[in-house]
Structures are given as structure tokens and as C-alpha cells.
Specification:
The complex is a heterodimer of chains A (about 300) and B (about 425).
Chain A lengths: L2 H5 L4 H19 L2 H25 L6 H4 L20 H10 L3 H20 L2 H6 L4 H34 L5 E2 L5 E2 L1 H18 L1 H13 L3 H18 L31 H26 L6
Antiparallel strand pairs in A: 1-2
Chain B lengths: L1 H12 L5 H30 L10 H10 L4 E10 L6 H8 L14 H5 L5 E10 L3 E8 L2 E8 L2 E6 L4 E6 L7 H8 L6 H11 L4 E11 L2 E10 L6 E9 L5 E8 L7 E9 L17 E4 H7 L2 H4 L2 H6 L9 H8 L5 E3 L6 E5 L24 H10 E6 L2 E7 L4 E5 L3 E5 L3 H10 L2
Parallel strand pairs in B: 6-12
Antiparallel strand pairs in B: 1-2, 1-11, 2-3, 3-4, 4-5, 5-6, 7-8, 8-9, 9-10, 10-11, 13-14, 14-18, 15-16, 16-17, 17-18
Classes of the chains: A mainly alpha (about 300), B alpha+beta (about 425).
Protein name (chain B): DUF2092 domain-containing protein
Organism (chain B): Streptomyces luteolus
Keywords (chain B): Membrane, Transmembrane, Transmembrane helix
């Protein structure tokens, strides 16, 4: 499904054309003021969490676990450890943003991908270029995925910097109780950020599909975000246990398994498989819809 | 995607797609959806199928294999599902027992608090052992883990959610005797421990057979089937899957005689018999981690407050040995007496609580406020209770799917893994 698969089979001119299209799409996505605003909000969340924990513990590491907010199980994952080790702010921030903030921003970008062009009246001009609808769709999806990665890394880097400024850093304790050194911790943090970014792959495809259904950018964004909220509510209803494994957010918390020692891979793989299915399912559905759609705007 | 590329391009460029082609495109997502649903839904089921072909073996040989098994190194993941028929025993128990975890002087990392959680629901555990000196047991939770680590003379418990640790020196008798015992046996809370319990109980009252083979965690295994011979027991059957190669029990399933879902289903989902990394058993609390010493906790909590926790606190560890509950009651606490034999044995405990169930409205009549339990606990007991009368007088029966207890109005408690009628009969025989 990735653009790479197709371009490798194509003669060079097409590769260049696809890359050109991708470059222009990426430029379009990341030069928009809206994208900066979304990333700015994401970057502010770790600062907010870090600030609150810092104020509450008074910067005294030993005061941490008792009053760190997460001590009695409340608050997002890893909350209790932040005051002991700033690196945990990365994990906490990702755990806090993954359920809503991150997919919210992805929903905005993905929902706008096709429908936004349609409502702005630019879609037909894009299709005049001899790029083909499939490639346009793939390029749109690729730039949405690039945004997923950028959004996740924004949270992670902001958490890393804030954590290092406000709290001590050093060796850390994994959730299995073993100790790993800081460089190993940074490596895990990177892996976790990637795992979180990959968790959004399925939802991005869903957003893209919704985007092909309507010619109103706002409707597509609202629809995508509405689906997100619906799914997140469904996951909290225990009676729907049988349905949960099929929801795209089912394995989202699995990124925390990277902090176990040894790492527990099963759920991470399950997450990748689920996201892959979502990407294939809604990617192909978006293609089926978009390839045969009347473009009137 | 490639085969569709050309069709699509013409569609995109000039030709209006025909209706048929438009519908045909939707076959792609429909097919993907079918495959995805099947894969997500059916993979676990498929993984269980396919019984391996193994040479025939008698029950005796299989038990010997287990007994002879000297597997010192093991690591793996264990999945435990428990359904005692109590929707939230852990919550209920919390209302009986003083909350050491949240209250003053307690620690969220104290083992007996945490292990209680294993009594209900499904949990994933990680176990690792390297000889009698090094063991580790972790209860996996969402983005958190609770670990008990034994390394030489140190026993550590670490709760990552609250970042609190609990430390005890070996030989410290006061705390969590259950898991100390378990850990000495080499492989803590693995199916081995459970199997040992069952095999000990095997006598003329029990039928033990080999019932085919199974594949557990990718290993070939024999299935040992243990069934009570008599009637009256709530235990229907116990199945133990034993590794065909090294005799390590891999899976333990306890089904109630009333049928339905197993009461306890504990088995490896992944197992490795290589030596676990030494770092697995190392624990050093990080700076800022709150550490509670076992002695400290003991001193802070007044003796009598801890008492009610005893029988309940013992339950969870190795809890999968559901029938152990009954057995523990039998051997254990002061003043206990056993009526009957084998599976249908009933333990009698004189609780000394004269008023029977200290309840207000259960109809046990003489609930003259003996005040031993807090009112909410009394109310809770009411909701579980079921009034019975007989030659012995009258009392209240509390039922779970496995263990039933009869609390008579004169303060005696009859408890066993037997049905209600057997309990009443046992009570009558005492009069």
C-alpha cells in the first residue's frame, strides 16, 4: 500500500512524478498554519503535565511517589515516576495524548485530505494532472502518515526536553522492576514514539476513507473525529467485550510493553496487525470510493 | 493494488466507470474485511487445535514424569482466568479487610493486597525461575506491572503503577507465607505447584487418567484428567497438560460439576526452558521509589486488624488451585475440624460469633448485632447468602461456583468444595 511498492515497478519518469507529487503534498501539509497550530498544541501538553507534577512535588524527587498524582492509580500511565526521572514524561505525555489529542489532530489532517481539496475546489485541478486517482490517494495517505510521525515526535521531543529541564534524569526503572541506563532509556523512548505513530496508521486510513465520502472538509473532519470519540466510548463499555478486539484503539496501550523487561512483543505485534488491517480495509475502501467518484468540484 | 492500476487510470482520466466496475471495486475492501475479521477472531481458536501424536502413556507414568521433572530454569507467560462466580471478590474483600494499601502505614506494593486481584478475571503473568534461589513473578497490567522478585535472601515486590516497593528478608514469617512457600518449591505459581496439590489429593476417591494430548504454548503435552469419583463435590474435572518432554505441567483447568466455563484456567501461553537472564532477578529501587520494609508494615498495623485478612489474603497466591481454598480451611486455622473424606470433605470452623451471620435482614433471625464485621460487609454477605434450615438449626449458605460455606446461627462455619445438600448433611451429622 505504500507509495514505494508502486514506484519500484515504474520506470524512472513516473518515480520522479510521484516523488514530485509527494513532495508538493508534504509541503502543502507542513507549511499550513493549521498544522503548526496542531503541533503547537501537542507540544504544550508535555509542558503542562511536567509543570503540574513539578509544582505538586516541589521538585523534590523523594516527594514524588507519594504525591505524584499517579500514586493511587489515577492519572495517565507512568505518572508516578516522572518526578524521579524526566524521561518518564515522554511516556506519560504519549500515554496522555494517544487516546484523544493525537488521533484528533490526525483526524483533522486525514479528514481534510480529499474533502478539503474538494470543498476548496482544487480537487479537479489535481486530477487534471496525469497522476491518476490511485496515486493521488496514496500520496495523500503518505503525507497523512508523515503527519502522524511528526505529531508523535513533537510530543516525544517536547516531553524529553521538558522532562530534562524540570526533573533529574539518569538510569531508570522499567515497569518490570529492572534497571536500564539512560541511553537504553532514550532508545526505548524512540521505539515507543514509533510504536505510537504506527498506532495511528489505521485511524489515518479511516480518516482518508471518510474524506472520500463527502465534498465538505468540515464534515469529513467532524465525521472522523466523531468516529474516534464513538470508538473510545465503546472501549469503556465492558459489555461490548466481544467487539473490542476489532476496534482500532484496542491495542493502543501496548506501546507501554516496550518498557517491560524483557519486552513483551505479542500485543505490539497484534497492534501492528490490527493497524495493517485497518489501513488495507479503509485504504481499499477509500480507493473503491474515490476511483469511481464523480468529481464535481 | 497493481492489477487495478490500469483499470483505475482509464477511469480517472476519461471513461466514466460502469456501474458494474464500481461495484466490483468494493469487492476489495469487502475481501480485506473478511480476512481481517477471520484473522482477528479465529486465530486464537486455530492456535489451540491440532493435538500432537504422542506415544501412549499411562496415568502412573505421566505422574512419575511430573514427579521426576527437575526443570530448574523456566520462563514464560501464564494466562490465568478465574471465574469463581463472585463478580468482584476483590472489591468485596477490600470492604472486609482494612485497606493496608491506601491507609496509613500501608504500601501499595504489599503482596497480599495485590495478589487478591488474581481471584477474579483474566490476568497475564510472567514467571521466571533459575534454581531455588531466584524467582520472579509479575502480574501484567495495562502499562503497569506488579512484580515479586526473589533473589537469594531478598524478596522484593515492586508496583510500577505507584512506583512503590516492598522489601522482606527471607525467613520473615509474618508476611505472605503462601508465596514464600510457593517460591521454595522452585517454580512459583506455575501450573506445577497446582498440579502437585492435585496429585497429593489423589487416592481412592479420585479417578486419574490420561486423556489424549494437547499442544500448549507450542509444546507437545499429555493431558492428565482428574475426576472425583463420588458425588457431592462441586469440582467436575481437573485437566493438567504435562509437557511430553520434560514433565513440566503447562496448563491447568478446573471445571465445576455444574458445567460451563472453567472456574480456573491457568496455562502457559509462551514457555522457554532456557536460563533466564540474571538481570531479570535484580532489583534495586530507584531514587524516589517509596520502599516499605516488611517489619515496618507489621509494626504499624495492629495485630487484630490484620486478622481478617488472613484467610482471604491466603487465597490468591497459587489461587488457581481453587480447591485449595477448601483444603486450606481444612488443615489450617485454629479449631478447624474435617468431616467426610476426599473431595466431599467439609471443614468446620467454630467462629465463635454467636449471632451467626451478623446481618440485619437476611432472615437468619438472631442477627443481634454481634458487630464483628462492618455493616457494609454484613450487607454484602446478605446479598450472597441463602437461608437454609435443617436438623442443625438454621443458617445461611454462601455459594460460589466452587466453594460453598454454611454459616449456622450458632456460629459454626461449614466450608467445602461441595454442593449445598452435602453441607447441610455435614452440619446435621454434627448434631
Amino acid at each position: 500500500m505504500s507509495p514505494g511498492d508502486i514506484t519500484t515497478e515504474r520506470p524512472p519518469p513516473r518515480v520522479a512524478a510521484t516523488l514530485g507529487l509527494l513532495r508538493s503534498e508534504l509541503g502543502l501539509t507542513f507549511r499550513r498554519l493549521r498544522t503548526f497550530a496542531l503541533l503547537g498544541v501537542l507540544a504544550a501538553i508535555p509542558v503542562l503535565i511536567g509543570g503540574v507534577v513539578r509544582i505538586e512535588t516541589g521538585g523534590d524527587p523523594s516527594a514524588g511517589s507519594g504525591s505524584g498524582g499517579g500514586a493511587d492509580g489515577g492519572g495517565p500511565a507512568f505518572m508516578a515516576q516522572i518526578s524521579n526521572n524526566g524521561l518518564f514524561l515522554v511516556f506519560t505525555a504519549l500515554a496522555a495524548t494517544l487516546p484523544f489529542f493525537l488521533p484528533l489532530t490526525v483526524g483533522v489532517v486525514a479528514g481534510d485530505a480529499i474533502a478539503g481539496e474538494a470543498s476548496a475546489g482544487t480537487l479537479r485541478y489535481l486530477l487534471v494532472a496525469p497522476a491518476g486517482r490511485t496515486r493521488l490517494l496514496l500520496v495523500k495517505y503518505a503525507s497523512t502518515l508523515a503527519f502522524c510521525l511528526a505529531a508523535t515526535l513533537t510530543v516525544a521531543v517536547s516531553g524529553l526536553v521538558t522532562g530534562a529541564l524540570l526533573f533529574p534524569v539518569g538510569d531508570l526503572t522499567t515497569i518490570s522492576g529492572t534497571r536500564i541506563d539512560y541511553s537504553e532509556g532514550l532508545w526505548r523512548a524512540l521505539l515507543i514514539a514509533l510504536a505510537v505513530a504506527l498506532s495511528l496508521v489505521g485511524f489515518a486510513a479511516l480518516g482518508l476513507f471518510v474524506s472520500t465520502l463527502t465534498s465538505s472538509g468540515i464534515a469529513a473532519m467532524a465525521g472522523t473525529v466523531g468516529l474516534l470519540v464513538t470508538v473510545q466510548i465503546l472501549t469503556t463499555i465492558p459489555q461490548l467485550d466481544a467487539v473490542h478486539p476489532y476496534l482500532f484503539s484496542h491495542h493502543w496501550l501496548s506501546f507501554a510493553d516496550l518498557m517491560r523487561e524483557p519486552v513483551l512483543w505479542e500485543n505490539l505485534y497484534a497492534n501492528l496487525r490490527l493497524q495493517g488491517f485497518y489501513a488495507l480495509l479503509f485504504g481499499s475502501a477509500a480507493w473503491a470510493r474515490f476511483a469511481g467518484k464523480d468529481i464535481s468540484a | 493494488m497493481a492489477p487495478y492500476e490500469s483499470a483505475q487510470r482509464t477511469a480517472g482520466d476519461e471513461d466514466r466507470p460502469t456501474g458494474r466496475r464500481r461495484v466490483a471495486r468494493y469487492a476489495v475492501p469487502a475481501a480485506v474485511a473478511g480476512v481481517a475479521a477471520a484473522t482477528i477472531g479465529l486465530v486464537p481458536a486455530l492456535a489451540d487445535s491440532g493435538d500432537p501424536d504422542l506415544p501412549k502413556i499411562t496415568a502412573q507414568q505421566l505422574i512419575e514424569k511430573v514427579a521426576a521433572s527437575d526443570q530448574q530454569q523456566i520462563s514464560g507467560n501464564v494466562k490465568i482466568s478465574t471465574d469463581l462466580g463472585l463478580p468482584s471478590l476483590a472489591d468485596a474483600a477490600a470492604s472486609f479487610a482494612p485497606k493496608g494499601g491506601d491507609g496509613d502505614g500501608g504500601s501499595a506494593a504489599a503482596p497480599d493486597q495485590k495478589l487478591m486481584e488474581l481471584v477474579t478475571g483474566t490476568h497475564t503473568l510472567r514467571v521466571a525461575a533459575d534454581g531455588p534461589q531466584k524467582q520472579k513473578l509479575s502480574i501484567l497490567d495495562d502499562a503497569a506491572e506488579y512484580s515479586i522478585i526473589r533473589n537469594g535472601s531478598d524478596v522484593w515486590a515492586y508496583d510500577s503503577k505507584s512506583d512503590e516497593a516492598f522489601h522482606a528478608e527471607d525467613g520473615h514469617a509474618g508476611k505472605a507465607p503462601e508465596q514464600d512457600r510457593g517460591m521454595h518449591e522452585g517454580v512459583p505459581a506455575t501450573p506445577k505447584e497446582l498440579a502437585d496439590e492435585i496429585l497429593k489429593a489423589a487416592d481412592e476417591t479420585t479417578s486419574v487418567t490420561v486423556d489424549g494430548t494437547a499442544s500448549v504454548a507450542g509444546r507437545d503435552a499429555y493431558q492428565l484428567l482428574v475426576e472425583p469419583k463420588g458425588t457431592g463435590s462441586t469440582v467436575g474435572s481437573i485437566r493438567i497438560a504435562v509437557d511430553a518432554e520434560n514433565g513440566v505441567p503447562l496448563k491447568f483447568t478446573l471445571s465445576p460439576s455444574s458445567g460451563g466455563k472453567p472456574v480456573v484456567d491457568a496455562g502457559f501461553t509462551k514457555v522457554d526452558f532456557a536460563k533466564p537472564a540474571a538481570s531479570t532477578f535484580e532489583f534495586k529501587p530507584g531514587k524516589g521509589t517509596k520502599v516499605t520494609e516488611a517489619d515496618e508494615l507489621e509494626r504499624k498495623a495492629p495485630k487484630e486488624l490484620k486478622e481478617p485478612k488472613g484467610p482471604l489474603g491466603e487465597l490468591p497466591f497459587g489461587q488457581p488451585g481453587g480447591d485449595k481454598n477448601g483444603k486450606n480451611g481444612k488443615n489450617g486455622k485454629g479449631g478447624a475440624k474435617v468431616i467426610g473424606k476426599g473431595w466431599s470433605s467439609v471443614a468446620v470452623i467454630d467462629s465463635g460469633a454467636k449471632g451467626g451471620v451478623p446481618s440485619s435482614g437476611s432472615g437468619s433471625g438472631s442477627g443481634s448485632g454481634s458487630g464483628e464485621l462492618p455493616p457494609e460487609a454484613g450487607k454484602l454477605l446478605d446479598s450472597f447468602g441463602d437461608k437454609v434450615t435443617g436438623k442443625f438449626g438454621s443458617g445461611t449458605v454462601f455459594s460460589t461456583r466452587l466453594v460453598n460455606a454454611l454459616m449456622t446461627d450458632d456460629g459454626k462455619v461449614y466450608i467445602g468444595a461441595v454442593d449445598k445438600a452435602t453441607l447441610v448433611k455435614a452440619a446435621n451429622s454434627q448434631k
